[in-house]
Amino acid sequence: MAEPARGLHVVVDPSKCAGCNICELWCSFEHEGVFSRSMSRIQVITYELVGLDYPVVCQNCEPAPCVELCPTGALSKGRAGGIELDKSKCIGCRVCSEICPYGAAMMDPKGRYPLICDMCGGNPACVAACPTNALSISGYAMVELPARSTAERFAVTELSKLAKGWGIEVRDDEGA
Amino acid sequence: MLRVDLTHMTYRVEELERDVALKYLGGRGLNVYRLYWEVPPGTNPLGPENKLMIATGPLVGFPHGLGSRINVTARSPLTGLLGDSNAGTHFSEEMKYAGYDQIVLEGRAPRPVYLYITDSWVEFRDASSLWGLTVRQAFNAIKKEVGDPRAQVAVVGPAAENLVRFAGIIFNAYRAAGRTGMGTVLASKNVKGIVVRGDGYVEAEQPERLLRALEQLIYSLYSNPQYWPRRVMGTSRILLAGHRLGFLPARHFQEPTADYAFRVSGELLAIKYNVKVRACSAGCALPCARFFVVKSGPLAGLMGEGPEYEPLAGFSVRVGISDLDRALKIVMKVTDMGMDAITTSEVISWLMELRQRELISDEEIGMKLEWGEADAVERLVEMIAYRRGIGKVLADGVKRASEILGRGQDLAFHVKGLEMIQADPRALKGYGLGFAVASRGADHLRSEPFIEVEDDPELGMRLFGEPEAAMRLGVKGKGKLVAFFEDLNAVVDSFEVCKNTAENMLVLTFESAAEMYSAITGVEASPAQIREAGERIVNLERAYLVREGIRRKDDRLPNRFLKEPLPSGPAKGHVHELDVMLDEYYSVRGWTSDGVPTPEKLISLGLVEVAEDLMARRVYNDEGQGRSG
User: Fold this and answer.
1) A21 at the B interface (CB within 8 A)?
2) CB B197 within 8 A of CB B152
3) Residue of A32, A49, A107, A110 to mutate when probing chain B, most B C-beta within 10 A
């Protein structure tokens, strides 16, 4: 099953995420100058009953529907990955927010503009601040692993999901 | 602050008094201020006239790394005195982002409700279909009904509804504000739950200064040698340590060690069942709440968060259970019923010792009760929650239960009506003094003088001028030790940050607290002023107790700890020398030898009106000495 194409983005190892929201707080401080969960471009979804947490963030789709459909051209692909917003052009129409297949373009609490990850120019504040090492940037490296048997191919497929959360792309050497 | 009138289902937002905020910092301090002046002596704890205060603190909402807490305060239905409990929860920062430092609940709702509190409105929602649900069921039902993943939910369980006097408020399904019956008070007001949701933000008056302070705080946390053991095991690691140091409450404090300790330890729990670390609140950089799943055996599939040391020890060694899985199941049941795990473990282990000594029969209990009988313990938990059979008696707490049965008063381990935690004061003497004087009854979290466990005479000399202060079996210097840590913890609890990080790892000192406070509020506070605020809070709590008639006679430990030498373990032969330590403590505090803060002391702390109030109530005799209450 081919994954949709994506540019550089923040990736998650959910087995490590503790749901401490530190990524959100530093994201909001980096972009808005205040500490807030609602003003963050990364949002942690928590299910307490089973102790699970997942930080949802822009996947940098190629092509990106938010960029394609923005009626004023306020959104563009960032040079360091992510999506950049030109606030002077944004009219707060919410099209990007509604079209995002990941729900990763929340409107700011006052509905003025979307909160989309711009990768902080290449050095995301969330990744730097995470105390559990649960966040990485996609595409640090690509590794081909030998997979001669069905069991090996299955293992590599499963492991590739885990390694993806470390920013490492794993595939079997036959490219299957 | 938000003031909710449940009787008329109305609310109003009030400006927090600025001078009060500065004097009492926030959280616990703010709550006890409100309790002292708004809940007079004689108030029925379960009547509509009692008030329940929930408060957060000045550091909450910032990524300070320490973990954020919430303080719940009311007159206690268990002790009839100061009721106060604290939990680490996402409710804390959410309430802050909704714009409230304190929520005051007054009156009694005409029908079961849950409150939905946001930045812009408060809704009183019907909870009649939720009444009777367990904690996890009610949490789930409210979460679904509200339909907002960010909504932070606190509920009470069946125990609170049945007015079990030691029911807690459970935040986020697993995080308990358990002690002193705060859930019982909430249920008595016909409130099943509280939901909070806020889109706001926090910012510092001096951002650059805050960033520098935050960086230092986080690095001192990360570099602390306790960081990793705590992250892997939370407080559950204390169980095995308690066995080694000989302070466990095994079989209701009859044995200070348990040869099966490893089998019910945090270490084994981490190795076998912990699947993930979890943070109880936003901004915590030492997430120590662990999610566990039992992997094999008849209880495979049992899951939950925690448990911490207190419930784990309470339902293993205290009742003689040596099977981790069974202990976990009972802890989860207690949480689901919404009861204080510490008090529940005392009433059950007390009953077991009564049975052992043949002061009560199996017929009277309604079942065969022996040490380690997990089935029986589990049944008793339910009987207490639903006030069935012997559970009806136990549901009133160990002090009342022993009075009702007219037996075992000497074995009822409480101070001022609050049941003893899972540590033997004979092996931890500073802790013991702390239990005796703690403003909410037998509890370690007021003082938590952990450095005595270091057994380092040089450290004691350096910090308190007394080598024994930092030696757990030492006596001299314990007054200074306890007073110092009581002041620090009053600050930690009022800032509403986590004691495991801030106090136990000494990350938040009076110096770093002053720096953070100044940067955030823009009001320049010195370390001495911060400590004074802590001392002020401790004195106000004491004044509240004194007003209720509490004196030295009530600052007691149960006789077992004062008279029966420890039978075994590293502290074998020791009793607790309470009276000597009390003298030192009162003198360090500037209180009379009867434990009453002098008018001069209160006035020096800016508690002039409190001194006047105590004088008007004739607490002092002509010499300015406290009269016996």
Assistant:
1) yes
2) yes
3) A49
Angstrom distances, CA of residue B275 to CA of A50, B23, B229: 11, 43, 16
Q: Average pLDDT of chain A?
A: 95
- Architecture of the CATH domain B227-412: Orthogonal Bundle (1.10)
* Cβ pair A18:B61 closer than 8 A: no
The pLDDT, as a whole number, for residue B197 is 98
CB-CB neighbors (< 8 A) of A21 in chain B:
90, 93, 279, 282-283
Interface contact A18, partner B, CB < 8 A:
yes
Interchain contact, B173 vs A50, CB within 8 Å:
no
- Interchain proximity A131–B93, CB inside 8 Å: no
Determine whether the interchain pair A37/B139 forms a contact, defined as Cβ–Cβ distance below 8 Å.
no
B409 vs A24: CA distance, rounded Å: 53
Closest-CA residue of chain A to B198: A38
Q: Which residues of chain A have a CB within 8 Å of the CB of B281?
A: 20
Cβ neighbours for B219, distance < 8 A, ≥ 6 positions apart: none
Per CATH, is B429-504+526-616 categorized as 1.10.599.10?
yes
In chain B, where does the domain assigned CATH 1.10.569.10 lie?
A: 227-412
A20–B93: do the CB atoms touch at under 8 Å?
A: no
For residue A47, give both structure tokens: 């299910």
Decide yes or no: CATH 3.60.9.10 for domain B2-197.
yes
Half-sphere exposure of B476 (CA within 13 A, CB side): 8
Which residue on chain B is closest to A18 by alpha carbon?
B278
Distance of CA B57 to the CA centre of its chain: 16
Inter-chain touch A48–B285, beta carbons under 8 Å: no
Query: Are A25 and A85 in a shared domain?
Result: yes
Query: Is A1 domain-assigned?
Result: no
Subunit contact A38:B97, Cβ cutoff 8 A: yes
Using an 8 Å CB-CB cutoff, list chain A residues near B291. 50-51
| Domain housing A170 | 139-176
Return the beta strands (E) in B379-492 as ranges: 414-415, 418-419
The interface predicted TM-score of the complex, written ipTM, equals: 0.96
For residue A5, what pLDDT is reported? 82
β pairing state of B69-75 and B2-5:
unpaired
Task: Verify whether the Cβ–Cβ distance B283 to A45 is below 8 Å.
Answer: no
Same domain, A20 and A63: yes
Residue in B173, B222, B283 closest to A25 by CB: B283
Residues A60 and A110 in one domain: yes
Find, among B112, B73, B127, B103, the residue nearest to B12 by Cα: B103
One domain for residues A15 and A78 = yes
Burial of B386 (0-12, 13-18, 19+ CB in 10 A): middle
Whether B201 sits inside 8 A of A24 (CB atoms) is no
Task: List the beta bridge partners of residue B187.
Answer: none
Cα nearest neighbour of A131 on chain B: B285
In a domain, A20, yes or no: yes
If residue B71 lies in a helix (H) or strand (E), which one and from where to where? strand B69-75
Contacts of B60 (CB under 8 A, 6+ apart): B68, B69, B92, B93, B96, B202, B496, B497
Q: Please indicate whether, in this complex, the C-beta atoms of A51 and B207 are within 8 angstroms of each other.
A: no
How long a stretch of residues is chain A?
A: 176
Q: B149: which chain A residues are within 8 Å (Cβ-Cβ)? A: 45-46
Q: Touching check for B90 and chain A: CB below 8 Å?
A: yes
A146 and A127 together in one domain: no
Number of domains present in the structure of chain A = 2
Divide the 629 residues of chain B into consecutive groups of 10 and give the mean pLDDT of each group: 98 94 96 98 97 98 96 98 98 98 98 97 98 98 96 98 98 97 98 98 97 95 96 97 98 98 98 97 97 98 97 98 98 98 98 98 97 98 98 98 98 98 98 98 96 96 97 98 98 96 92 97 96 98 98 98 98 98 98 97 98 96 60
